[in-house]
Write a structure and sequence with these properties.
CATH class: Alpha Beta
Strand order of the largest sheet: 1-13-11-5-7-9-10-4-12
Structural class: alpha/beta
Shape: globular
Number of domains: 1
Number of helices: 4
Helix content: 10-25%
Strand content: 15-25%
CATH topology: Glucose Oxidase, domain 1
CATH architecture: 3-Layer(bba) Sandwich
Largest sheet: 9 strands, mixed
Order of helices and strands: EEHEEEEHEEHEHEEEE
CATH superfamily: Putative cyclase
Length: about 220
Amino acid sequence: MTVQSIDLSHPLDPFNISFYPGDPPYTCSPHATVPEHGYSVQALSVCTHTGTHVDAPSHFFAQAKSIDQIPLTSFIRPAIVVDVSQKVAPRGRITWDDLSLSIDDRPEAVIVLIRTDWCKHWGKPEYVNHPFLDADAARQLVARGVSAIGIDTLSPDETEGSANDFGVHQAILGAGGLIVENLRNLATIPEGALVNFVPLNLRGGDGSPVRAFAYVP
């Protein structure tokens, strides 16, 4: 059987990257080079929320599970893609009404991927002015058994705005769920595709960069 893959992660490029205000920047520099040492080694500086990444519950709750305590199977799920790209505006609020027609009566063991197409602004100043999910919509998802969401923006919560109380993070991670941020290419995922967002095995990590991708039979 031939399986196609769709890359859902942004490349990590120090010269073309977006990161949350206040987070440490990503750097990649040569430590050893083939001409000088006969081999190449690069030094990376990343935080647990660099680039396309997954948040563990311990990102907001000190006694909750860290990224290494979550079963690997939790990071491989069938996807439901909710397309709100025609409804969003800069710093626009995504409500439950925008999601409900696509979410009702779906299996619980899925990842709900919210497509805004804001990923087109990756690496640009306007990326921080992304649309965001209403906290009540996040609570509605949790009430229906959804334990993982992903979005193609910097955060599912508003970044440095009037609604910046992290209500979505509180709802999803507080229920023991997972949040994947800074995704891309959500427009290309067909119904029922399997999405992989396995993290690094970081002891005590509150999140991890991932190479997210979708399997398409």
